[in-house]
Amino acid sequence: MGKILKVFIGAFLVLGANIFAAENQNIQIFSTDNSNGSINAKSIEKAFNDSGVIVDVNNDMNSIFSKRYGKVYHKNYNLAIFTNPARVTKLMKKYPTIGLITPLSMSIYEDDKTINIATLSLAGMSRITKIPMTDPDLTAYAKSVDAALHKALPKGKYLPVNHTLKSSKPLVTVFTTEFEVEDGDTITDAKESFEEEFESELGPVGFLIPKSYKLKHDNYDFFDTYSIIRFNAIYPVYKNHPDAGAYAPFSLVIYKKKGDDTVHIAYPSIDNWITDLDITDKETVKAVKETQEKIKNILEELTE
């Protein structure tokens, strides 16, 4: 019995070490040898789904980039979005900011003989949402991602990451407004009208919506999130920073609490990629800043 207890405690400590290994870094990169080519984006998706961490979109970006830009920089490169629905529901009750990372995103990239998965770490999840790292539901969410990573890459390990940790810019871009409800309409009708207009503004300036979510909870009249991407931003970034998939696609949340007239709209500020990923190339910096300004301007106009 004592031996079994020691094994259990040892396993628990190893899992805890994995979760907090990147405590001071916002991104974690899980990597393994893939010389035999047995692991790919689809097998990783299946492993995540089997672990209860649901992958909703998993796109081969090399196929998209080669057609759009004529050149790719990595052997294989996928961007995927995923959630743990049970954990998100629990966190929504306490922290509407969980919408800022619903869904989470990851890049799956392969060069030479190594395959890698980049996601937000527990520290990164906490940093954006302001949910304490000690919150049991956030910790459980991070542990579920860790378990999925280990199932996807059974012999994997976390790579050292040494990105800049602080930014002089706001981590989150936030808007508040109140929806006018026309006679005969409901607050849901007003919200849907707003979202239709918002979506119509995104396409002409290069944004795409891989997926949107309408989450339900008794605390909210509505709680909707979007996964949004702009190829003209991620393409120049991914060349030297393939782990940018931990941030892209980015999530945007629109919610209204019951009994409160205020509608909240927020997303992680895109220009923080520059410091978070240590981007120095001038044209890449320009593309990232432009992307932040474009979506910010759209929301400023819609919430005036």
From TrEMBL:
Residues 1-21 form the signal peptide. Keywords: Signal. The keyword Chaperone does not apply. Pfam families: DUF302. Residues 67-119 form the DUF302 domain. It comes from the Bacteria. InterPro entries: DUF302, TT1751-like_sf. The keyword Mitochondrion does not apply. PANTHER family: SLR5037 PROTEIN (PTHR38342:SF1). This is DUF302 domain-containing protein.
